[in-house]
Amino acid sequence: MDAIYTLHDFMLNSKNWIYILMGLGLIMYVCWWLFLTSRDEPKRIT
Amino acid sequence: MQRRKFLGLLGAAGLMTTAVAGQAQAAGSKHFEGYPDSFGVLHDTTRCIGCRKCEAACNTVNKLPKPDKPFDDLKVLETERRTTDTAYTVVNKYETSKGLKFRKIQCNHCLEPACASACFVKAFTKNPTGSVTYDESVCVGCRYCMVACSFNIPAYTYNDPITPKIMKCTMCQPLIAEGKLPGCVEACPKEALTFGKRVDLIKVARERIRQYPDRYVDQIYGEREMGGTAWIYLNGVPSPEVGMRDDLGVASAPELTGGALATVPMIVGLWPVLLTGIYAVSKRKDKIAKEEKRQAVTAALTKAAADAEVKLSAALTKAEVENKKQIEVAVKKAVEESAKQPKTEGEA
Amino acid sequence: MSQDTAAGKGNLFNIISGIIILAGLVVTFLRFTQGLGGVTNLDNNNPWGVWIGFDLLCGVALAAGGYTTSAACYIFGLKRFHSAVRPAILTAFLGYAFVVFALHYDVGRPWRLPYPIFVSPGTTSLLFEVGLCVFLYVSVLFIEFTPAAFEWLGFKKIRKVVVKLTLALTIMGVILSTMHQSSLGALFTIAPSKLHPLWYSTYLPVYFFISSIFAGMSMVIFEGTLSHHYMHGLMDKTHLDEADGVVLGFARGASMVMMGYVFIKIIGLVSDGTWQYLSSGYGLLFLTELLCFVALPAMLYGIGSREKNLKLIRWTSLLTVLGIVFNRFNISMVAFNYQLPSSQRYFPSLMEIVISIFVVTLIVTVFRFITTRMPIFYEHPEYAEHEEEPAAHGHGH
Ligand code: SF4
Ligand code: SF4
Ligand code: SF4
User: Fold this and answer.
1) What are the DSSP calls for C125-157, one per residue?
2) How does pLDDT run across B210-262, given as a tens digit for each residue?
3) CA nearest A30 in C: which residue?
């Protein structure tokens, strides 16, 4: 990757990753919630 | 009571995340100097005579449409103008404390361009040459770049219904890439415009101020404004007198929006935690309340459900014949009437 | 129910909306043949006008009822608001759908609206954030709304699947709303030199988010008032029984949030040291906005909910909604470009206003179309017994 010379380019790059991480994070939360509640009374998910 | 708590929490968390973001930004010690050896132009307004040769040259090199009034018509200077979709640069005349002064306006090619920071399709690029260029092929035409630019530079082809676009000075990127001078600089008869590496231009400007302290005010406009610009100015009068705002501040666009942008992932990260927590609490309360009432309710419910079933099926048979929607409401009402006692208890 | 007056009202409504829609279509034609220059008063100094200030900023703020109501009911467990959820979700969905629709008029090349997400994401832009969240939130609202449509169509299985997702969708809705409501305010943080210091603040995103909460709640009350007036016959007993409780509860909640909002606005003034501008003309405007359109309705809501004065609350909701519009107009138009001489300031053209009214009329028309067909104000009898949300499912066992 080219060296980064401006704050704008730096932010463009870091925010790209942050948006991807946000998407992954949301999916992770759902999975974690399912895991946490999986031994509760059987009738409900979410 | 509960509602109050919830709204309080929302507010608290909102403020909290902003505070966090502010800190995160302050803590970031990243500093960027911009592209090394990038170019710029020094505009010495004390030398400018308002001949409009730069406007004419810009019009030619960029193949813009011919204006209504020819470039040698200096009456145009009587009214203050700004850049438009047919003029990347304009010269204005100002009455100042030191007499008439002229100043050329064009894109300042900011070191941290607000237009680029604002554009949601990355239509602007800060090039290693120092120029800020625009790519029409992705532009949606939202005009946020125009809102963002503190110098009011980008113009828009408002009368184009199908393919409107942003128009602005390119610092003659195609020419400087070939090692040539920008059109306007080339055309200036008074050397009011000097093209060169920005670092050198700053030195030149300093030197001029040092040599002629009476001629110049001790300020290089654009050295730090909005995070610094490639196009810098030397003035003989305080900058507002020649139509340049001196209240822009030195924070660049990405610094201004950094705080708000930094808050966004905090919302995504912390909201689910907070909200599932609140949900768990409210569900737990529900459960306890229900447990207490279960005994009493079960009996009543069973009976009501049976009653409702009977009425429901009767009504549904009728429903075949009549307007369906009306019946749905009527049936619902009937069901509720019979189930009223236990249901209200159950939901309280 | 008096059929005659209802029909009369319906006819009058149809005639007026017919005229507006016709005018809207004419301007639409002009917009897409002459460009923005032909129909708007926008220029290079004033790139955003009433289509952004009203259709986008007010539209999104006033559609906030969707997330506030569903969060209150499903996350905070305030079941008594349950019958308000569906109308609120429907209003929010239509609100957002028409925000997107109206954007097609404002942006230069509307067919490129997906570009920020799919072609060339400019992630440093707050507008990118707004675009992404609005896109996702419209989808979430659409899914949240589908159970009503499925009940109408009789698709039981798929309805059940969607209903199971309620909690996840609600949380998602709150996250996305927080993000884009606040980012709409943050749009202006990039231009400190153009927005008057009284309105410019690094807290802008917080102000927009908090004000969206009471904007949404007031809109639920206000819209409920209208619906009760014109569509009373469509409502079932639960809805009618709960309606007053919803109004009272929301009034109390809104008054609390509004007090908080006034407080943080004052904090902002002091922390930015901008209170000195209060004595100027803009200061008067600012104080009017804060005192007459936020502090006053906050008090009226408080009094109304304490004294169970529904009429007072309903009028207050109108005042609050107007206050939100006033605030968004101030930020996007009145206090924006305050430094320009008055000859260069923006004032909307008639055709711009026509389009904004046209869009509102379309929303009302579609709302009427849907509520008279699908189970919005009443529970579908076949589905009434299983409670909607997972949280309350236990009851009956
Ligand atoms: S002057 Fe305006 S248009 Fe030019 S680079 Fe700076 S922000 Fe962009
Ligand atoms: S108008 Fe075009 S260039 Fe300007 S911000 Fe919007 S998409 Fe980017
Ligand atoms: S640098 Fe080129 S495009 Fe810019 S004002 Fe000069 S001639 Fe015009």
Assistant:
1) -HHHHHHHHHHHHHHHHHHHHHHHHHHHHT-HH
2) 999 999 999 999 999 999 999 999 999 999 999 999 999 999 999 999 999 99
3) C168
